[in-house]
Amino acid sequence: MKELTQSSTLKELYSTPIGHDTIGRVLLQLNLSEKWITGSFIGNLKLKTLMKLTKKSLGEGFWNALLHLINQEKDLPLDRTPEAMPKEPKKAWWKEAVIYQIYPRSFADSNGDGIGDLKGITEKLDYLKELGVNAIWLSPVYDSPNDDNGYDIRDYRKIMTEFGTMEDFDELLKKTHEKGMRLIMDLVVNHTSDEHEWFQKALQDPDSKYRDYYFFREDTGKEPNNWVSFFGGTAWNRYPEQNAWALHLFSKKQMDLNWDNPNVRDDVIDMINWWLDKGVDGFRMDVINYISKEAGLPNGDEAIGSMMMFYGIEHYYYGPHLHEYLKEIQDKAFRPHGAFSVGETPGVGREMAKLITGEERGELDMIFSFDQLDMPGRIRFDYYEYDLNYYRDYIIDWMEHYGNNCWMSLFYNNHDNPRMVSKVTKDPAFNVPVEKLLAVMQFTLKGTPFVYQGDEMGLTNYDFHSIEELSDVESKNRYRELLKMHAPEEAFRIIRTGTRDHSRVLLPWNESVKNLPDHLIQQPDESITELYKDLIRLRREHPALIYGTFKVLSRKKNRFVYERSDGSENFVIECNLSKDARPALFRPDGYEPVLNPQGTGPVLTPYEARIYRKKTEA
Length: 618
Ligand code: NOJ
Known about the structure:
The chain has 618 residues and is of the alpha/beta class. It is 32% helix and 15% strand. A hairpin with a 4-residue loop joins strand 17 and strand 18 (570-576). The longest helix is centred in the middle third of the chain and has 17 residues, at 262-278. The site of 1-deoxynojirimycin (NOJ) has 9 residues, from loops.
């Protein structure tokens, strides 16, 4: 690719994958549309002019960092004009699947200790089968001191004691397969626990071969750089007896692995193969786009740091060897086992995602991008009403540009987020219609739906009463930081909006929830569960809803009408994205309603979603 310089125009920068997604992220943050670049004179400005103009707001560092990232990416984006794309997506089991995420700690408790466990999951396999899911993704079940609920792994080849034993795991795997479902594990290899044997050996002996498994730096009186941790404060731990610092992008007990060390890659790949040999079907890969860090770990740019809230991020969110390392895992572990992979890739947008998931690239099958979870200029700790028009535009943008050799993951919830329904509406009277609308879209759009445990029960956010009711390390650290600037009530109010604990409370079907206060127990809504079953069945029985084309019929304000069609079948989905009743736009002549509990009259009720299928000629 042509080297870009300060004489390149903003449009030229924006036409590259990294430029597109990074500038796109800034636009999102500033709540500006891309027309600002593509449709105005600003796009034709040379970088050096822009640098002068934005000297005060962005500083030169932002543009230099961007140029560096763009020029570092040597691969040309694939020609994705519709003519150049395969006419149809290739078939794969994971494209047809509905994947159900289990957060083991709060899913099913088989022994009444108030903590979910593996036996509990095995007992619920029939429930999951009946729901219609094809695969389960298990959040980490490995041995861990639980500083970050299992995302801090002490031993990759051992099961966490609270969750059971390796025999329990083997039983779960066997039964899952017997029931015709697949099991996907969480792979957390950006970091290990500080209690992992590798880190312990590295810490105890500076000459150990494990020292270079992590990022140790000599103590010269201050942190080796200005990077901050996602969970608050500096990203460096100081070890005074060692005269050293070590890097942790997450909690103080989650130490970053140095992937530039080939021994780290070999050991991690061995471990992956060990699980694949056992028979697991694939992995969800935790913050996998962070594994390659810029050599020398340079300071993060101040302006980027304040804008993104994380100093240093430009040096690792799309690091120099990311593609190389992903290919290595694919070649040495995933491909030989036919394993499935989905990467958790915060900050990666549509164009960068193509470079990671394009079928021709041999890296990952899918990624999770997160830009749909909050509105532009908002973060999850902001209390606001999420406008579904934004979700519609986001989805249309991806569906129209991602191309047939990439495949999307479709999700609203996971263990790191409050429930989407509670962002969309603050009025409990609308919870059920919103949940149904979200479900209809999730199972009729093009991509693989990921259901988060409890979505199918209609769970919403909890009315936590105090910080003591929260257990998440992120919430606790953030609360402590907020207390420096806010009164305790205000700090708690902010945390309550965004805490990950909303999705981590024990599911209400457990006997042991009885021990929780009333406000932490919700009644599952059976009408939602039934709708999930119907929608999952509908999707399974009609390939048009999986592989069929996606066409927008209307994107007027508060409307989303689209068509899915595969030549032999044709579906139209009409959604009312607002809390007001609205006249139906789609005239269903020649169509029949499918699963439309509210009927097919001339008016859509608040948040109503309807599905129609074209009648086949008799
Ligand atoms: C992303 C995971 O989803 C989250 O739960 C965890 O805290 C961080 N990665 C660190 O592993």
